[in-house]
Write a structure and sequence with these properties.
The complex is a heterotrimer of chains A (374), B (296) and C (271). In chain A, 22% of the residues lie in helices and 33% in strands. In chain A, strand 16 and strand 17 form a beta hairpin. Chain A folds into 2 domains: 239 residues, 3-Layer(aba) Sandwich (Rossmann fold); 124 residues, Beta Barrel (OB fold (Dihydrolipoamide Acetyltransferase, E2P)). Chain A contains 8 helices and 20 strands. In chain A, strands 6-7-8-3-9-10 form a 6-stranded mixed beta sheet, with helices on both faces. Chain A has a 5-stranded antiparallel beta sheet with strand order 13-12-11-14-20. In chain A, strands 15-19-16-17-18 form a 5-stranded antiparallel beta sheet, with no helix packed on it. Chain B has 296 residues and is mainly α. Chain B has a single domain, classed as MetI-like (MetI-like fold). A two-stranded antiparallel ribbon of chain B has the order 1-2. Chain B is globular and about 80 Å long. The relative contact order of chain B is 0.12. Chain C contains 11 helices and no strands. Chain C has 2 domains: 174 residues, MetI-like fold; 35 residues. Chain C is mainly alpha-helical. In chain C, helix 6 packs across helix 8. The model of chain C has no long low-confidence stretch (mean pLDDT 89). The chains are: A alpha+beta (374), B mainly alpha (296), C mainly alpha (271). At the B-C interface, helix 1, helix 4, helix 5, helix 6 and helix 9 of B face helix 1, helix 3, helix 4, helix 5 and helix 6 of C. Chain B: InterPro entries: MetI-like, MetI-like_sf.
Chain lengths: 374, 296, 271
């Protein structure tokens, strides 16, 4: 194809747009951000993902200029932004509540920031028209915010924050107020707009699916720290910790002790069960505590014992969650451990092969699980 | 810088025109009456320097307060104000609660209109509202005319210039203050609570007594304080509707100041009135605080 | 539960009769021919005619109007500032005293406020007149304004102001372009409240006015102390009429606005 993949974080010569350098933020005694260092590159769609109170919103508000770091520096294009007030930053924000000015029309809301820059009137009109077109709001220009629907308001907020063509756009839970169906459509729209405008987006969200869908890279946060920054695929397939593995998607975590053998490890995890077999680059000592994280879709479920599977064990079906396209089985091993296995429902329900209380065999390959130090 | 200016301007205004006047009242209440302008001594004389200031403080005393205790006019006036304010508050509650209850149970589309009708008198002149009762309650007034013509009474009743007229005046003018907080408490009350109480075996009345009243308690308390506190220092109502026997401290203060020109005693009367008011004001604040916490 | 039982109907009927009958009687008897106010002697508007020719009343009305407009305007500015301080300024030394000074005048007996201000004016040798009444009225009504405005500011979504800053406003222009227009209804009702309080005030004005600055309430007061008079009935009727028209218009406007908003919101959902 010849087209280069967009991966500036793997290019040592690429200059990051934003650099957090040992940034700490305290509110009184409470440490909201704990000594964090990371980079965001131009044209990235960067997601800060974590549960509420993990510090992701604080991170964003420091970028917008509503909070200043207690320690450390934030560089935007190589320049320390601490002394620049929010109204002078080339950074715009889309607020969680949208913060649309209720006394101004859609048009005036979008033009608001442009007027502050004393842009000539024809230019403002052209720019607002462009934004209205981008967000498909042309026919609502004269309406007030309370006269349009939730999804339209969301687009006005986006248009308003994009109008000034910021170097960096911050989006605080931009889709939080929308219902599930609309949210999905809007996610793709956001990606589309991000691509068209080439603006760097930083999105804050607690919805892992949303982060995985839209972002080029995801930073998973907990308790004021970034646990892992990586592409959605790597976050899912190669989590660096039990926390990340557990936070993203569905997973079974098996805990045990490792013994190195050949190019992998044997993991003793339960009395009366053969050790688990896992190939991994993770460096573990003999007898070290470890966890094996296995995604349900990587576990096969069969009636007969599979031949030459790296890992196979028998259990009883405890629960079946029917999700339409997929079914997740909760299978209990004799020692009480529950393992989740997922199958695609390619057949009609009546032809389904397993039901409650069935004894079944679970199996997975030696590369299916992710081995993590305990 | 801007924040500082924002704070300083209203702050300075209130200091100069609220706190300083107050300190002056306190100071004059500790001075002696004199036949001079201003009619009290000592006056602070800064030109005499430190000695002047020392002299000034040396001459302040509690004589006026002692005087208030020796002349029984004053403590009787305080007691009578407290009594009138208390009785009037209870009466206002008895009149106001059913109205608030009726409003809260009125159909939804009526309520804004009812609300406006309660607030409307609040915007009309207080003086006029009190005055309107003079024509009704006087010996030849409309009430006596009505009762005489109905044959209920044979002699006109003397109501104007008695405490009864004062009570009527207070209930009339302060009624919105009682109704509004009770109404807002009752309006929030979830009707299913009453249905639940009846479902669990309460009669209509016991459900009202055990559910509605306790849940509107904060509104009742707020309403009572909103009536009691201003009534205590009321001047217009006792002067227009009350008689010579109606003793209320606001009226005494006014007369002490304008008729007797006794500024130090008037100031002492004011200081004591404030001290009396502090208790209900603190209780009121606490009730508001509790309510805010319960809501937030 | 939301039905009118006989009890509720009775309570509301009697309650509103009690509230409105005295004023209705006052209005009816303002059109009484007779000088004896309690005896009906036929319809006449002659008391209104006499009222209009009574220069003392007209002068007092003019003084009152000037005082009310000026003091409520200053009070609105100061009260809005005070509300911003209360809600936004965070902690500063003297904050407790400040909020105390805002809330105290609301519960302070008028006789004390009036007395203390009078003593201040005498103490600093300020001649009593229109100016001192304006000072006094501004002081107590700014507290009412700040209570009204601060209760609106508390529920004000702060991210609106942040959005304005984010889009390039300075803090002052963010206040002027975003905060002020949104809290304007509260500021306006604060002004109206201050205006009415000033129009209405007898006690504080009596303490702080001079011989040349009699306000309408003082004038009415000295007239009604002598008993009921048909001229005062006529004056009262005019004042009640003005207020009633004002309040009813205002409530109709807000009702229409809220109906329109509801309709808009419904339209938005279906759009």
């Amino acid at each position: 194809m010849g087209q280069t993949i967009f991966e500036p974080w793997n290019d040592p010569s690429a200059k990051p747009l934003i650099q957090f350098k040992n940034v700490t933020k305290k509110f009184g005694d409470f440490v909201a951000i704990d000594n964090q260092t990371f980079d965001i590159y131009a044209q990235e769609f960067f997601a800060l993902l974590g549960p509420s109170g993990c510090g992701k919103t604080t991170m964003m508000r420091m970028l917008a200029g509503f909070e200043t770091p207690t320690e450390g520096t934030i560089l935007l294009g190589g320049e320390d932004i601490a002394p620049i007030p929010p109204n002078k930053r080339a950074v715009n924000m889309m607020f969680q509540s949208y913060a649309l000015f209720p006394h101004l029309s859609v048009w005036e809301n979008i033009a608001f920031g442009l007027k502050r820059d004393s842009m000539p009137k024809p230019d403002i009109e052209a720019r607002v028209a462009e934004m209205l077109k981008l967000t498909r709001l042309e026919q609502f220009a004269k309406r007030k915010p309370h006269q349009i629907s939730g999804g339209q308001r969301q687009r006005v907020a986006l248009a308003r924050s994009l109008a000034k063509a910021p170097k960096l756009l911050l989006l605080d839970e931009p889709l939080g107020a929308l219902d599930a169906k609309l949210r999905q459509d809007t996610q793709f729209e956001l990606m589309d707009i991000q691509e068209k405008t080439g603006t760097t987006f930083v999105i804050v969200t607690h919805d892992q699916e949303e982060a995985m869908t839209v972002a080029s890279r995801v930073a998973v946060m907990d308790d004021g720290r970034i646990i892992q920054v990586d592409t959605p695929a790597r976050i899912y397939e190669s989590p660096n910790s039990v926390y990340v593995a557990d936070f993203i998607g569905d997973v079974t975590i098996l805990s045990g002790t490792a013994t190195p053998r050949d190019d992998g490890y044997d993991i003793a995890f339960a009395e009366g069960q053969p050790p688990l077999r896992s190939k991994s680059d993770t460096r573990l000592d003999k007898g070290q505590a470890c966890h094996l994280a296995i995604r349900p879709e990587k576990v096969s479920i069969t009636a007969e014992k599979p031949v030459d599977a790296a890992n196979a064990m028998q259990g009883k079906i405890l629960d079946i969650a029917y999700l339409g396209n997929l079914s997740t089985y909760h299978v209990q091993l004799p020692n009480g451990q529950i393992i989740k296995a997922q199958t695609a429902n390619t057949r009609r329900l009546s032809r389904r092969s397993f039901t409650w209380e069935d004894d079944v065999w679970l199996s997975w390959t030696d590369t299916a699980g992710v081995l993590l130090a305990g | 810088m801007r924040r500082l200016a924002l704070i300083i301007i209203p702050y300075a205004w209130l200091l100069a025109l609220f706190l300083v006047p107050f300190i002056i009242v306190l100071k004059i209440s500790l001075s002696d009456t004199a036949l001079s302008i201003p009619p009290y001594t000592p006056t602070l004389d800064f030109s005499a320097g430190w000695v002047g200031i020392k002299d000034f403080f040396g001459n302040l005393d509690f004589e006026n307060f002692e005087f208030l205790t020796t002349d029984d006019l004053y403590w009787k006036a305080y007691l009578s104000s407290l009594k009138i304010a208390f009785v009037a508050t209870v009466l206002t509650l008895l009149v106001g609660y059913p109205i608030a209850y009726g409003m809260a149970n009125a159909p939804d589309h009526w309520r804004p209109t009812l609300m406006m009708l309660i607030i409307l008198p609040f915007w009309t002149s207080f003086l006029i509202r009190v005055y309107s009762w003079m024509g009704i309650l006087s010996n030849e007034g409309y009430l006596n005319q009505l009762l005489l013509s109905l044959g209920v009474i044979s002699e006109p009743l003397t109501i104007l210039n008695t405490n009864t007229a004062v009570y009527i005046g207070i209930v009339y003018t302060y009624l919105p203050f009682m109704i509004l907080p009770i109404y807002s408490a009752l309006e929030r009350l979830d009707a299913s609570l009453l249905e639940a109480a009846e479902d669990l075996g309460c009669s209509r009345f016991t459900a009202f007594w055990l559910v509605t009243i306790p849940l509107s308690k904060s509104g009742i308390i707020a309403g009572c304080f909103l009536v009691f506190i201003p009534t205590l220092g009321e001047f217009v109502i006792p002067s227009l509707l009350g008689g010579s026997k109606t003793l209320m401290i606001g009226k005494v203060l006014w007369e002490e100041f304008f008729n007797n020109r006794d500024w130090p005693v008037a100031s002492a009367v004011a200081v004591i009135l404030l001290l009396i008011l502090i208790v209900p004001i603190i209780l009121f604040q606490r009730n508001e605080q509790k309510q805010r916490e319960a809501e937030g | 539960m939301r039905r009118l039982s006989w009890f509720n109907t009775t309570a509301l009927t009697l309650g509103f009769a009690f509230l409105y009958l005295p004023m209705v009687i006052l209005i009816i008897y303002s059109f009484n021919e007779s000088k004896l106010v309690t005896v009906w002697a036929g319809f006449s508007t002659k008391w209104y005619g006499e009222l209009i020719q009574n220069e003392a009343f007209l002068n007092a009305a003019w003084v009152t109007l000037r005082v009310a407009v000026i003091s409520s305007t200053i009070a609105t500015v100061l009260g809005t500032m005070a509300a911003l301080v209360l809600v936004r300024a965070g902690r500063f030394s003297g904050r407790t005293l400040f909020s105390g000074m805002i809330y105290a005048p609301l519960v302070m007996p008028e006789v004390i406020t009036g007395l203390s201000l009078l003593l201040l004016f005498i103490g600093i040798g300020l001649d009593r007149g229109v100016f001192t009444i304006i000072l006094a009225h501004t002081t107590f009504s700014m507290c009412y304004v700040s209570v009204v405005v601060s209760s609106r500011l508390v529920s004000f979504d702060k991210s609106l102001e942040e959005a304005a800053l984010d889009l390039g406003c300075s803090p002052i222009s963010a206040f002027r372009l975003v905060t002020l227009p949104i809290i304007a209804p509260a500021v306006i009702s604060g002004w109206l409240l201050a205006f009415t309080l000033s129009l209405d005030d007898l006690v504080i004005a009596s303490f702080t006015s001079g011989p040349s600055s009699t306000t309408l309430p003082i004038k009415i007061w000295s007239a009604v102390r002598l008993g009921v008079s048909p001229e005062i009935n006529a004056l009262s009727t005019l004042m009640i009429a003005i207020v009633a028209v004002g309040v009813i218009t205002a409530s109709l406007i807000t009702k229409r606005a809220s109906l329109k908003q509801q309709a808009d919101e419904r339209a938005a959902v279906h759009a």
